Amino acid sequence: MDSFLETFILSAFIICTLLLVYLLRSRWHNKTFGKILDAKRSSWSIQDFLEHRTNRPHQGQVFSFKEGLVTSSTYRIKGRFDQAILYWDANPILEAVIERKFPRRILPEKVRNEDVFQAELYALTLTEMGAISADCKIIVIYCLQQEASTCVDRNRDGCLNCRKGRRFVSGFNLNRVAKKLDKLNKEWYKSKTPRANSSRDSCIICPYSRKRGCKHSTI
Amino acid sequence: MGTTSNRDSTEFRNISDLRIQYQCSYRLYLKHKIGDRPTLEREKGRQLHQEVFSLGERGESINTRLILAVIIITLFAAAIWIFGGL
């Protein structure tokens, strides 16, 4: 074969291999992200899927549900999750619950506990609605508003995954979340004195703060 | 909270309120006492949620198709290089 053509084909092979590694890296780092990328947008509502009111889905087919309304009668909580990934294996299996946050200026170095707790509550509700969550992952994605806006304005692909964002993955423990919820409900229903979190990070984001300081002492 | 009357234990609590309470229960107390204070950051975040989700499906399916296309090209190039040299 002509040496130029041979070199060209070899270069194309190397470039394609490197590109493949780049595209697949998230799958190698974390199986869950691979499943999320492969998840098919579900045409059913989350309630229909969990209550088996659908044509039986293919075994193992992963579905993505977005902005689903969920309610738990046991824990008396309700909400709308960002995204939930489920697949069918004789029963609906909850693979992951994803919560996206769009901070204005700074990407957090570590995940905020309240964001994890919020996603955990969605997972708790979905479990009570019929999903099996033994291996559920809790994923929090932080994406700067500027980054997300630019992606949207340019109509680019992959805005949902926010390549320049930060992702934090943790496991879901139903008993641990139920205990946290129970503690908060005791404060709420027994009308205990509210406690202020007067840390700087907390006050900066608080809409009731005054000059970035906690003003709880002024009320 | 504080000395407010007993809350109705049959009501359903909103998960976003529970998030606030977990972070700072006083902030939730102020939200109920003074009213919600939407911030620009929060409104922008809400808007971005909707816009990003509307583009999301396209991004996810194109990523998979792109990977398949690259695999095919890689195998094709490898085959030409191997068999072309024989």
Explain what the structure shows.
- Chain A is of the alpha/beta class and 219 residues long.
- Chain A is 40% helix and 21% strand.
- The mean pLDDT of chain A is 83.
- With 86 residues, chain B is mostly helical.
- In chain B, helix 1 packs across helix 2 (25-34).
- Chain B starts with 12 loop residues before the first strand and ends with a helix.
- The model of chain B has no long low-confidence stretch (mean pLDDT 77).
- Chains A and B meet through helix 1, strand 4, helix 4, helix 5 and helix 6 of A and strand 1, helix 1, helix 2 and helix 3 of B.
- Strand 4 of chain A pairs parallel with strand 1 of chain B, so a sheet runs across the interface.
Largest interface by Cβ-Cβ < 8 Å: A-B, 76 and 65 residues
Report the β-strand fraction of chain A as a percent range: 15-25%
Number of helices of chain A: 7
The residue-averaged pLDDT of chain A reads 83
What's the multimeric state? heterodimer
Which bin fits the share of residues in helices of chain B? over 70%
User: What class do helices, strands and sheet pairing of chain B give?
Assistant: mainly alpha
What distance separates the N and C termini of chain B?
81 Å
Distance between the termini of chain A: 84 Å
Radius of gyration of chain B: 27 Å
